Amino acid sequence: MKELFLEKIMIKNRTRFYIYEILLKIFSDDAFSNITLNNFYKKNNIIDIKDKKFITEVVYGTIKNKLYLEYIIKCFSKSKTKNKIKVILLMSLYQILFMNRTPNYAIVNEAVIISKEIDGKFSSSFVNALLRNIIKNFNANNINFKNDEEKFMIENSCPKDLFYILKKEYGTEKTRKIILSFNNKSKNSIRVNLIKNNVKELKQYFENKKIEAVHSNISPDNLLLKNIISNDEKFNLGNYIFQGESSSLVAHSIGENKKINYKILDTCAAPGGKSLHIATLYPNSIVYSCDKHEHKISLIEDNAKKLDIKNIKVFKQDATIYKDEYKEKFDIIICDVPCSGIGVIKNKPEIKYKINTNYINQIRKTQLSILENSKKYLKENGILIYSTCTIDNKENEDNIKKFLKKNNNFVLEKISIDNSIIKEYKKGMIKILPDEYECDGFFICKLRKKGV
Q1: Which candidate in 158, 339, 389, 445 is catalytic?
Q2: What is the pLDDT of residues 29-44, one digit of tens each?
Q3: Which reaction equation describes what this protein catalyses (predicted)?
Q4: Is 389 a catalytic residue?
Q5: By the number of CB atoms within 10 A of the CB, which of 44, 121, 285, 412 ranks highest?
Q6: Can you say which residues are annotated as belonging to the binding site?
Q7: Which residues are annotated as a binding site for S-adenosyl-L-methionine?
Q8: Considering the entire predicted model, what is its pTM?
Protein backbone atom coordinates (compact mmCIF):
# COMPACT_ATOMS: atom_id res chain seq x y z
CA MET A 1 0.00 0.00 0.00
CA LYS A 2 2.82 2.38 0.94
CA GLU A 3 4.66 1.60 -2.31
CA LEU A 4 1.51 2.32 -4.36
CA PHE A 5 1.07 5.66 -2.56
CA LEU A 6 4.69 6.64 -3.28
CA GLU A 7 4.23 5.71 -6.94
CA LYS A 8 1.21 8.04 -7.19
CA ILE A 9 3.20 10.87 -5.58
CA MET A 10 5.96 10.39 -8.18
CA ILE A 11 3.45 10.42 -11.06
CA LYS A 12 1.83 13.60 -9.77
CA ASN A 13 5.22 15.26 -9.39
CA ARG A 14 6.08 14.24 -12.96
CA THR A 15 2.82 15.83 -14.15
CA ARG A 16 3.87 19.11 -12.57
CA PHE A 17 7.34 18.67 -13.98
CA TYR A 18 5.70 18.46 -17.42
CA ILE A 19 3.94 21.75 -16.66
CA TYR A 20 7.28 23.28 -15.71
CA GLU A 21 8.89 22.10 -18.97
CA ILE A 22 6.02 23.42 -21.12
CA LEU A 23 5.95 26.82 -19.43
CA LEU A 24 9.74 27.17 -19.56
CA LYS A 25 9.66 26.57 -23.32
CA ILE A 26 6.84 29.07 -23.85
CA PHE A 27 8.50 31.79 -21.75
CA SER A 28 12.10 31.16 -22.84
CA ASP A 29 11.58 30.38 -26.54
CA ASP A 30 8.73 32.83 -27.16
CA ALA A 31 6.68 29.81 -28.25
CA PHE A 32 2.92 29.63 -28.81
CA SER A 33 1.06 27.88 -26.00
CA ASN A 34 -1.32 25.87 -28.20
CA ILE A 35 1.44 24.56 -30.48
CA THR A 36 3.72 23.75 -27.53
CA LEU A 37 0.95 21.84 -25.74
CA ASN A 38 -0.13 19.96 -28.88
CA ASN A 39 3.44 18.92 -29.66
CA PHE A 40 3.95 17.81 -26.07
CA TYR A 41 0.80 15.66 -26.06
CA LYS A 42 1.79 14.04 -29.38
CA LYS A 43 5.17 13.04 -27.93
CA ASN A 44 3.65 11.92 -24.61
CA ASN A 45 0.49 10.12 -25.72
CA ILE A 46 0.33 7.93 -22.63
CA ILE A 47 -0.80 10.84 -20.45
CA ASP A 48 -4.44 10.26 -19.47
CA ILE A 49 -7.26 12.75 -20.13
CA LYS A 50 -7.53 13.84 -16.49
CA ASP A 51 -3.85 14.78 -16.34
CA LYS A 52 -4.07 16.51 -19.73
CA LYS A 53 -6.90 18.70 -18.45
CA PHE A 54 -4.89 19.54 -15.33
CA ILE A 55 -1.74 20.36 -17.31
CA THR A 56 -3.67 22.51 -19.78
CA GLU A 57 -5.49 24.39 -17.02
CA VAL A 58 -2.31 25.21 -15.10
CA VAL A 59 -0.35 26.18 -18.23
CA TYR A 60 -3.01 28.56 -19.56
CA GLY A 61 -3.89 29.89 -16.12
CA THR A 62 -0.26 30.68 -15.32
CA ILE A 63 0.28 32.47 -18.64
CA LYS A 64 -2.95 34.46 -18.36
CA ASN A 65 -2.12 35.64 -14.83
CA LYS A 66 1.64 36.00 -15.23
CA LEU A 67 1.98 39.73 -14.43
CA TYR A 68 -0.24 39.48 -11.37
CA LEU A 69 1.67 36.44 -10.06
CA GLU A 70 5.01 38.16 -10.71
CA TYR A 71 3.81 41.23 -8.83
CA ILE A 72 2.90 39.14 -5.77
CA ILE A 73 6.26 37.34 -5.85
CA LYS A 74 8.01 40.71 -6.06
CA CYS A 75 6.08 41.92 -3.00
CA PHE A 76 7.40 38.98 -0.97
CA SER A 77 10.91 38.68 -2.38
CA LYS A 78 13.37 41.44 -3.24
CA SER A 79 16.03 39.11 -4.62
CA LYS A 80 16.40 38.38 -8.34
CA THR A 81 15.12 34.93 -9.26
CA LYS A 82 16.48 32.62 -11.96
CA ASN A 83 14.05 32.11 -14.85
CA LYS A 84 13.64 28.39 -14.24
CA ILE A 85 12.91 28.92 -10.53
CA LYS A 86 10.55 31.76 -11.40
CA VAL A 87 8.55 29.37 -13.61
CA ILE A 88 8.15 26.97 -10.67
CA LEU A 89 7.01 29.82 -8.43
CA LEU A 90 4.52 31.11 -11.01
CA MET A 91 2.89 27.75 -11.69
CA SER A 92 2.76 26.89 -7.98
CA LEU A 93 1.36 30.27 -6.98
CA TYR A 94 -1.31 30.01 -9.68
CA GLN A 95 -2.48 26.70 -8.19
CA ILE A 96 -2.45 28.13 -4.66
CA LEU A 97 -4.46 31.26 -5.54
CA PHE A 98 -6.78 30.06 -8.31
CA MET A 99 -7.26 26.30 -7.87
CA ASN A 100 -8.49 24.33 -4.89
CA ARG A 101 -8.16 20.68 -5.93
CA THR A 102 -4.74 20.18 -4.28
CA PRO A 103 -3.85 21.14 -0.68
CA ASN A 104 -1.33 23.99 -0.45
CA TYR A 105 1.21 21.88 1.42
CA ALA A 106 1.22 19.34 -1.44
CA ILE A 107 1.73 22.10 -4.05
CA VAL A 108 4.65 23.48 -2.04
CA ASN A 109 6.12 20.02 -1.54
CA GLU A 110 6.09 19.26 -5.27
CA ALA A 111 7.53 22.70 -6.09
CA VAL A 112 10.38 21.95 -3.69
CA ILE A 113 11.02 18.54 -5.30
CA ILE A 114 11.15 20.04 -8.83
CA SER A 115 13.34 22.98 -7.84
CA LYS A 116 15.77 20.66 -6.03
CA GLU A 117 15.93 18.39 -9.08
CA ILE A 118 16.70 21.20 -11.53
CA ASP A 119 18.73 23.63 -9.39
CA GLY A 120 19.79 22.08 -6.11
CA LYS A 121 19.04 22.41 -2.42
CA PHE A 122 19.56 26.18 -2.07
CA SER A 123 16.87 26.95 -4.66
CA SER A 124 14.49 24.39 -3.19
CA SER A 125 14.85 26.01 0.27
CA PHE A 126 14.17 29.43 -1.27
CA VAL A 127 11.05 28.14 -3.06
CA ASN A 128 9.81 26.46 0.11
CA ALA A 129 10.27 29.56 2.27
CA LEU A 130 8.78 32.00 -0.25
CA LEU A 131 5.65 29.97 -1.03
CA ARG A 132 4.99 29.28 2.65
CA ASN A 133 5.37 32.98 3.42
CA ILE A 134 2.87 33.92 0.70
CA ILE A 135 0.37 31.28 1.87
CA LYS A 136 0.61 32.59 5.43
CA ASN A 137 0.60 36.35 4.78
CA PHE A 138 -0.89 37.11 1.36
CA ASN A 139 -4.07 39.17 1.27
CA ALA A 140 -5.27 40.48 -2.10
CA ASN A 141 -6.82 43.54 -0.43
CA ASN A 142 -3.48 44.60 1.08
CA ILE A 143 -1.48 44.70 -2.15
CA ASN A 144 -0.47 48.28 -2.91
CA PHE A 145 -0.76 49.91 -6.34
CA LYS A 146 0.13 53.40 -7.56
CA ASN A 147 -3.38 54.08 -8.84
CA ASP A 148 -6.58 52.42 -10.02
CA GLU A 149 -5.31 52.06 -13.59
CA GLU A 150 -2.18 50.19 -12.47
CA LYS A 151 -4.32 48.01 -10.19
CA PHE A 152 -6.56 47.05 -13.12
CA MET A 153 -3.63 46.27 -15.41
CA ILE A 154 -1.73 44.15 -12.89
CA GLU A 155 -4.73 42.27 -11.52
CA ASN A 156 -5.71 41.37 -15.10
CA SER A 157 -2.10 40.80 -16.21
CA CYS A 158 -2.39 43.34 -19.00
CA PRO A 159 0.94 44.91 -20.05
CA LYS A 160 1.00 48.72 -20.16
CA ASP A 161 1.77 48.82 -23.88
CA LEU A 162 -1.27 46.75 -24.76
CA PHE A 163 -3.52 48.72 -22.40
CA TYR A 164 -2.53 52.10 -23.84
CA ILE A 165 -2.71 50.91 -27.47
CA LEU A 166 -6.30 49.79 -26.88
CA LYS A 167 -7.16 52.82 -24.74
CA LYS A 168 -6.06 55.19 -27.50
CA GLU A 169 -8.31 53.42 -30.00
CA TYR A 170 -11.32 52.43 -27.88
CA GLY A 171 -11.30 54.60 -24.74
CA THR A 172 -10.89 53.49 -21.13
CA GLU A 173 -14.27 51.86 -20.52
CA LYS A 174 -14.28 49.77 -23.70
CA THR A 175 -10.63 48.82 -23.22
CA ARG A 176 -11.40 47.46 -19.76
CA LYS A 177 -14.22 45.34 -21.17
CA ILE A 178 -11.97 43.99 -23.92
CA ILE A 179 -9.19 43.14 -21.45
CA LEU A 180 -11.62 41.42 -19.06
CA SER A 181 -12.85 39.31 -21.99
CA PHE A 182 -9.28 37.99 -22.44
CA ASN A 183 -9.73 36.08 -19.18
CA ASN A 184 -12.27 33.80 -20.87
CA LYS A 185 -11.66 31.18 -23.55
CA SER A 186 -13.54 31.18 -26.83
CA LYS A 187 -16.13 28.45 -27.23
CA ASN A 188 -15.10 25.12 -28.77
CA SER A 189 -15.86 25.78 -32.42
CA ILE A 190 -15.85 23.27 -35.26
CA ARG A 191 -16.64 23.86 -38.92
CA VAL A 192 -18.66 21.16 -40.64
CA ASN A 193 -17.11 19.78 -43.83
CA LEU A 194 -20.09 20.16 -46.18
CA ILE A 195 -18.53 17.71 -48.65
CA LYS A 196 -19.00 14.84 -46.20
CA ASN A 197 -21.75 15.97 -43.84
CA ASN A 198 -24.20 18.75 -42.95
CA VAL A 199 -24.74 20.85 -39.84
CA LYS A 200 -28.04 19.23 -38.83
CA GLU A 201 -26.76 15.65 -39.06
CA LEU A 202 -23.48 16.37 -37.27
CA LYS A 203 -25.33 18.21 -34.51
CA GLN A 204 -27.49 15.13 -34.01
CA TYR A 205 -24.38 12.93 -33.99
CA PHE A 206 -22.94 14.86 -31.04
CA GLU A 207 -26.25 14.93 -29.20
CA ASN A 208 -26.46 11.15 -29.54
CA LYS A 209 -23.08 11.04 -27.79
CA LYS A 210 -24.47 13.30 -25.03
CA ILE A 211 -22.29 16.21 -26.20
CA GLU A 212 -24.09 19.53 -26.24
CA ALA A 213 -23.78 21.06 -29.74
CA VAL A 214 -25.19 24.48 -30.61
CA HIS A 215 -25.46 25.90 -34.12
CA SER A 216 -23.33 29.06 -34.35
CA ASN A 217 -25.20 32.29 -35.01
CA ILE A 218 -21.99 33.84 -36.32
CA SER A 219 -20.84 31.36 -38.97
CA PRO A 220 -23.54 29.26 -40.70
CA ASP A 221 -21.51 26.05 -40.98
CA ASN A 222 -20.02 26.02 -37.47
CA LEU A 223 -21.09 24.15 -34.35
CA LEU A 224 -20.17 25.05 -30.77
CA LEU A 225 -19.39 22.05 -28.57
CA LYS A 226 -19.54 22.00 -24.79
CA ASN A 227 -16.84 19.32 -24.73
CA ILE A 228 -14.31 18.06 -27.25
CA ILE A 229 -14.29 14.32 -27.94
CA SER A 230 -10.82 12.81 -27.89
CA ASN A 231 -9.97 10.77 -31.00
CA ASP A 232 -13.48 11.21 -32.42
CA GLU A 233 -14.31 9.01 -35.44
CA LYS A 234 -16.12 11.79 -37.36
CA PHE A 235 -13.12 14.08 -36.94
CA ASN A 236 -10.73 11.34 -38.04
CA LEU A 237 -12.91 10.74 -41.12
CA GLY A 238 -12.83 14.44 -42.05
CA ASN A 239 -16.45 15.29 -41.29
CA TYR A 240 -15.37 18.45 -39.50
CA ILE A 241 -12.35 20.58 -38.73
CA PHE A 242 -11.52 22.79 -35.76
CA GLN A 243 -11.95 26.40 -36.86
CA GLY A 244 -13.07 29.52 -34.99
CA GLU A 245 -16.37 31.18 -35.83
CA SER A 246 -14.80 34.50 -36.80
CA SER A 247 -12.12 32.85 -38.94
CA SER A 248 -14.86 30.94 -40.79
CA LEU A 249 -16.42 34.23 -41.91
CA VAL A 250 -13.57 34.92 -44.35
CA ALA A 251 -14.86 32.38 -46.89
CA HIS A 252 -18.44 33.64 -46.49
CA SER A 253 -17.33 37.25 -47.02
CA ILE A 254 -16.31 36.58 -50.63
CA GLY A 255 -19.96 36.54 -51.70
CA GLU A 256 -19.44 35.64 -55.36
CA ASN A 257 -21.43 33.20 -57.54
CA LYS A 258 -20.41 29.73 -56.31
CA LYS A 259 -21.28 28.05 -59.62
CA ILE A 260 -18.62 29.95 -61.59
CA ASN A 261 -15.11 28.61 -62.09
CA TYR A 262 -12.76 31.10 -60.39
CA LYS A 263 -9.03 31.07 -59.84
CA ILE A 264 -8.60 31.86 -56.15
CA LEU A 265 -5.32 32.68 -54.41
CA ASP A 266 -4.79 32.40 -50.65
CA THR A 267 -1.49 34.21 -50.10
CA CYS A 268 -0.82 33.34 -46.42
CA ALA A 269 -2.73 30.11 -46.12
CA ALA A 270 -1.25 28.13 -43.20
CA PRO A 271 -2.58 26.32 -41.29
CA GLY A 272 -5.06 26.13 -44.17
CA GLY A 273 -8.51 26.38 -42.58
CA LYS A 274 -9.63 29.28 -44.77
CA SER A 275 -8.29 27.74 -48.00
CA LEU A 276 -10.07 24.47 -47.27
CA HIS A 277 -13.29 26.29 -46.41
CA ILE A 278 -13.18 28.37 -49.62
CA ALA A 279 -12.50 25.27 -51.71
CA THR A 280 -15.56 23.65 -50.12
CA LEU A 281 -17.88 26.60 -50.76
CA TYR A 282 -16.57 27.15 -54.31
CA PRO A 283 -16.37 23.56 -55.64
CA ASN A 284 -16.11 24.62 -59.30
CA SER A 285 -13.11 26.84 -58.62
CA ILE A 286 -9.43 26.13 -58.05
CA VAL A 287 -7.85 27.42 -54.84
CA TYR A 288 -4.11 28.10 -54.92
CA SER A 289 -3.02 27.84 -51.30
CA CYS A 290 0.40 29.37 -50.56
CA ASP A 291 2.69 29.65 -47.59
CA LYS A 292 6.40 30.20 -47.15
CA HIS A 293 6.91 27.35 -44.66
CA GLU A 294 7.44 23.84 -46.06
CA HIS A 295 6.07 21.98 -43.02
CA LYS A 296 2.90 24.06 -43.05
CA ILE A 297 2.32 23.30 -46.74
CA SER A 298 2.32 19.56 -46.02
CA LEU A 299 -0.22 20.17 -43.24
CA ILE A 300 -2.60 21.81 -45.73
CA GLU A 301 -2.14 18.91 -48.17
CA ASP A 302 -2.82 16.34 -45.44
CA ASN A 303 -6.00 18.13 -44.35
CA ALA A 304 -7.23 18.49 -47.95
CA LYS A 305 -6.84 14.73 -48.41
CA LYS A 306 -8.58 14.00 -45.12
CA LEU A 307 -11.50 16.31 -45.97
CA ASP A 308 -11.70 14.90 -49.52
CA ILE A 309 -11.13 18.32 -51.13
CA LYS A 310 -9.92 17.95 -54.71
CA ASN A 311 -9.94 21.56 -55.98
CA ILE A 312 -6.94 22.89 -54.03
CA LYS A 313 -3.33 23.26 -55.12
CA VAL A 314 -0.63 23.97 -52.57
CA PHE A 315 2.56 25.97 -53.27
CA LYS A 316 5.51 27.25 -51.31
CA GLN A 317 5.53 31.00 -51.78
CA ASP A 318 6.51 34.03 -49.67
CA ALA A 319 3.66 36.55 -49.94
CA THR A 320 6.04 39.50 -49.53
CA ILE A 321 8.00 38.51 -52.67
CA TYR A 322 6.47 39.42 -56.04
CA LYS A 323 5.86 36.53 -58.43
CA ASP A 324 5.58 37.72 -62.05
CA GLU A 325 3.77 34.61 -63.35
CA TYR A 326 0.85 35.42 -60.99
CA LYS A 327 0.26 38.85 -62.58
CA GLU A 328 -3.48 39.40 -63.16
CA LYS A 329 -4.17 35.65 -63.04
CA PHE A 330 -6.69 35.48 -60.17
CA ASP A 331 -10.38 36.35 -59.78
CA ILE A 332 -10.32 36.28 -55.98
CA ILE A 333 -7.40 36.83 -53.61
CA ILE A 334 -7.34 36.24 -49.85
CA CYS A 335 -4.77 38.16 -47.80
CA ASP A 336 -5.12 36.78 -44.29
CA VAL A 337 -1.96 38.56 -43.24
CA PRO A 338 0.35 38.04 -40.24
CA CYS A 339 -0.73 40.35 -37.43
CA SER A 340 -0.26 41.21 -33.75
CA GLY A 341 -2.98 38.69 -32.81
CA ILE A 342 -4.73 40.86 -30.21
CA GLY A 343 -8.03 39.25 -31.20
CA VAL A 344 -6.92 35.73 -30.21
CA ILE A 345 -5.45 36.50 -26.77
CA LYS A 346 -8.31 34.50 -25.19
CA ASN A 347 -6.79 31.31 -26.58
CA LYS A 348 -3.16 32.39 -26.94
CA PRO A 349 -2.56 34.49 -23.80
CA GLU A 350 1.23 34.71 -24.33
CA ILE A 351 0.57 37.09 -27.24
CA LYS A 352 -0.26 39.99 -24.92
CA TYR A 353 3.30 40.09 -23.57
CA LYS A 354 4.77 40.65 -27.05
CA ILE A 355 2.72 43.67 -28.02
CA ASN A 356 4.17 47.16 -28.28
CA THR A 357 4.08 49.99 -30.81
CA ASN A 358 7.36 49.02 -32.49
CA TYR A 359 6.19 45.44 -32.90
CA ILE A 360 2.94 46.59 -34.51
CA ASN A 361 4.72 49.06 -36.80
CA GLN A 362 7.00 46.28 -38.08
CA ILE A 363 4.03 44.00 -38.72
CA ARG A 364 2.24 46.79 -40.61
CA LYS A 365 5.11 46.98 -43.07
CA THR A 366 4.74 43.28 -43.82
CA GLN A 367 0.96 43.58 -44.12
CA LEU A 368 1.18 46.46 -46.60
CA SER A 369 3.91 44.68 -48.55
CA ILE A 370 1.63 41.65 -48.96
CA LEU A 371 -1.28 43.86 -50.04
CA GLU A 372 0.84 45.71 -52.60
CA ASN A 373 2.12 42.43 -54.07
CA SER A 374 -1.28 40.77 -54.08
CA LYS A 375 -3.07 43.60 -55.90
CA LYS A 376 -0.88 42.88 -58.95
CA TYR A 377 -2.15 39.30 -59.10
CA LEU A 378 -5.81 40.33 -59.31
CA LYS A 379 -7.83 40.55 -62.51
CA GLU A 380 -10.05 43.55 -63.25
CA ASN A 381 -13.36 43.35 -61.33
CA GLY A 382 -11.72 40.79 -59.02
CA ILE A 383 -12.27 40.55 -55.26
CA LEU A 384 -9.55 41.01 -52.65
CA ILE A 385 -10.27 39.99 -49.05
CA TYR A 386 -7.98 41.44 -46.38
CA SER A 387 -8.29 39.88 -42.92
CA THR A 388 -6.51 39.78 -39.56
CA CYS A 389 -7.09 38.27 -36.13
CA THR A 390 -6.36 41.59 -34.45
CA ILE A 391 -8.57 44.49 -33.36
CA ASP A 392 -5.78 47.07 -33.65
CA ASN A 393 -6.98 49.84 -35.99
CA LYS A 394 -3.48 50.56 -37.31
CA GLU A 395 -3.28 47.04 -38.74
CA ASN A 396 -6.84 47.15 -40.04
CA GLU A 397 -8.69 50.34 -41.01
CA ASP A 398 -5.53 52.46 -41.22
CA ASN A 399 -3.87 49.94 -43.56
CA ILE A 400 -6.94 49.87 -45.80
CA LYS A 401 -7.13 53.66 -45.82
CA LYS A 402 -3.45 53.88 -46.77
CA PHE A 403 -3.89 51.22 -49.47
CA LEU A 404 -6.95 52.91 -51.02
CA LYS A 405 -5.25 56.30 -51.05
CA LYS A 406 -2.41 54.81 -53.08
CA ASN A 407 -4.60 52.55 -55.26
CA ASN A 408 -7.66 54.46 -56.50
CA ASN A 409 -8.60 51.57 -58.80
CA PHE A 410 -9.81 49.64 -55.71
CA VAL A 411 -13.11 50.28 -53.93
CA LEU A 412 -14.77 48.91 -50.81
CA GLU A 413 -17.38 46.26 -51.61
CA LYS A 414 -20.42 45.42 -49.48
CA ILE A 415 -20.14 42.30 -47.28
CA SER A 416 -23.32 40.34 -46.70
CA ILE A 417 -23.31 37.00 -44.85
CA ASP A 418 -26.47 34.89 -44.81
CA ASN A 419 -27.64 33.42 -41.49
CA SER A 420 -25.15 35.39 -39.40
CA ILE A 421 -25.65 38.03 -36.73
CA ILE A 422 -22.43 39.71 -37.87
CA LYS A 423 -23.02 42.73 -40.08
CA GLU A 424 -20.83 45.40 -41.63
CA TYR A 425 -19.92 48.22 -39.28
CA LYS A 426 -18.65 50.22 -42.26
CA LYS A 427 -19.14 49.50 -45.94
CA GLY A 428 -16.86 46.60 -46.87
CA MET A 429 -15.66 46.04 -43.29
CA ILE A 430 -16.51 43.62 -40.52
CA LYS A 431 -15.00 43.89 -37.05
CA ILE A 432 -15.62 41.41 -34.24
CA LEU A 433 -14.58 42.62 -30.79
CA PRO A 434 -13.78 39.88 -28.24
CA ASP A 435 -15.91 41.40 -25.47
CA GLU A 436 -19.05 41.41 -27.63
CA TYR A 437 -19.03 37.78 -28.72
CA GLU A 438 -17.68 34.58 -27.17
CA CYS A 439 -15.22 34.09 -30.01
CA ASP A 440 -11.96 35.55 -31.31
CA GLY A 441 -11.62 39.18 -32.30
CA PHE A 442 -11.34 39.58 -36.05
CA PHE A 443 -11.30 42.06 -38.95
CA ILE A 444 -12.37 41.47 -42.56
CA CYS A 445 -12.34 43.94 -45.43
CA LYS A 446 -13.65 43.29 -48.95
CA LEU A 447 -12.24 45.25 -51.91
CA ARG A 448 -13.00 45.14 -55.60
CA LYS A 449 -10.58 46.09 -58.36
CA LYS A 450 -12.42 48.40 -60.72
CA GLY A 451 -12.60 47.63 -64.41
CA VAL A 452 -11.69 50.08 -67.14
Answers
A1: 389
A2: 888 898 899 888 888 8
A3: cytidine(967) in 16S rRNA + S-adenosyl-L-methionine = 5-methylcytidine(967) in 16S rRNA + S-adenosyl-L-homocysteine + H(+)
A4: yes
A5: 285
A6: 268-274, 291, 318, 336
A7: 268-274, 291, 318, 336
A8: 0.91
